[in-house]
Each structure stands twice: as C-alpha cells, then as structure tokens.
Prior knowledge:
Blueprint: H1 18-30, E1 40-42, E2 50-53, E3 57-68, E4 75-80, E5 83-88, E6 93-95, E7 105-116, E8 120-122, H2 125-161, E9 163-164, E10 167-168, H3 173-200, H4 207-231, H5 242-253, H6 259-263, H7 275-283, E11 300-303, E12 306-312, E13 320-323
Parallel strand pairs: 1-4
Antiparallel strand pairs: 2-3, 3-7, 4-5, 5-8, 6-7, 9-10, 11-12, 12-13
Amino acid sequence: MPSAFYVLPVNIRPLFPLAEVYIVNWLLKDIGEQVTEEIVTVSCSDEKLQLEKKENGFLISGTLKDVPYARFAQKLLVLTGEIAILLDLKKAEMKHGQNLAGEARDEVYFCNVFVENGQLISVQKKQTEKKLRYLGALTRTVMMAGALERILELAVNYAKGREQFARPLHRFQVVQQQLALLAGEVAAAGIAAEYAATSYGGNPFSKEIALAKVRVNEAAGKASAIAHQVLAAIGFTHEHTLHHSTRRLRAWRDEYGTETDWGLGNSTDRIIITNEELRIVVTGDGCRKSFRKGGIIDERFTFFGRKQYCKNSAESPGKFECVQ
C-alpha cells in the first residue's frame, strides 16, 4: 500500500481530486465497503450536516466549505457522527472557490436531499475521523515533498543558466550556500515523507506520519523563501512556473494540520515523544544509557522508520555501538 503514495508528487495540475480518491477508497476498504471507480472527494471541514429521520431514510441538509475539487467529482464522502455517507454531488448546489494555489476548493450546499437507509454506513466516529486526519496528512506530506523537489530543480537550473558579472549565479558563494540550504530541506522532507508512507502499512496512526507533516511543513516555508530569493523578481511573475509549486506548498501546509496543530495544539493527535526517543534523534546514539551493564542486544527502538539497537563492541569491551 505505501508504494501507491509515490504517484502523488507529480509536476502536473490535476483537474480531479487524485489524493482524495485514494483517501476515500482506503477509508471505504477499512470499514468493509466496496471501493468505487467514480471520481470521489471528501470533506475535511468542521461543518456537519443535519439529518432528519424519515420513514425509509433521512433528509440531509447543510453546507460544507473548502471541499477539494467538488465541481469535478461525482460523489462526496461525508462523516457525520457515527455515520458515513457517499452523497451524489448532482443533488447539491455549489459555489466555486479556490485556495491560495488556485486549486478548486468549493462550497457544497445540500437542501433536503433524501438518502435511503441502505446508503448509510455505520462507522466508529473517533477512529474514522482520526484515520481521515492521518491519511490526509500523509498524502499532503508526499505531495509537498514532490513540490519541494520541483522547487530545487527550478532553482538549480536557473542559477546555472543565469549570468551576473560575467559568471553564472551558481559560482557565487552566497548563492551556493542558499542552494545548499535548499537541498538540505528538500532531502529532509523527502526522507520524512518516505518513512511516513512506509510506516502507514504497519500503523496508520504512526508517529512518523505526524512528525513528517511537521517537518515537511517547516521545509516548505524555508524552501519557498530561498527559491524566490535565488530567482529574484522573475520567480514572482505569473508566467514563471515557480509559483505553481510555492503557492501549493503554502496552501497544503495548512491542510490536515499545521505544525502547531500536530505539535503544540490541543489536538488529541498531537505528537508525544519520549525522552529516550528525543535523545536518540538528537544524538544519533541509540540507547547507550540503557546498556551500561552489557548484553549483546537488549532493546530496539524505531524512530522515523529507522530501527536501531546497541551491542557490546568486540574490540573494546564496555564500549557500545549503534547499529541500524
């Protein structure tokens, strides 16, 4: 399953909700429903629909904002309490909108739309909403990693081709420094996204997904600023392709949780890292403190998908090695 995420970071502007199609079908599969071949999207807004009980079903009314590509989708998956519903968008009224990147984010309005009892899907509210949040964060993370790679490519090519003071921009040390910082952010984001996608198969609520969204969000802010500095004024023009990636990064950064939402907010899904996990990632030192009294292999840790264990050094008894 994680390999499916790697089709997302593409340098195109799709006119249908590719990521949302994945999300909806994974959710349908997890709750035991048949996946669909239709173009579907999902609402991640806090607004809820009102259900009025009738003899053979329900009347549904309400407004959902910022629905991705609703104008191009056939159906919309909505979570309302302990119920999931696939609603036909032909029965909805729609007000077209867009996000900062110009992608379709529409307002969908349902007025007394009748849904039969057989169309209602019973779900566990908290678990399904949490899975939607993590799936959304994961897809946005991978998409952002792809956009960051595109930004690096554009910046490097521009620095090689643009000359100033009779030499290419990339020959200036200050530009080299900025490109190096940009490459570092892109590499870190790519690794975080890869580990997040890999971890999903074993645990859909893994800490790697939350950490990856935070890390890629941070990289998006830094990388966008550096890329526009390198390209200067031309990077801000509508005709140049750089803004197609940087504006998407700004828009996707806010979807399915910001850094504050995942790390410091009041969300029940905020990241909790143990002292030992923090020490491992800061020092890269495995678990030396826990292994003072020996033992070939005593404990194993996983952080960002990286498994580590410590063992006694054969050459120097009492000295511990970290092995991945």
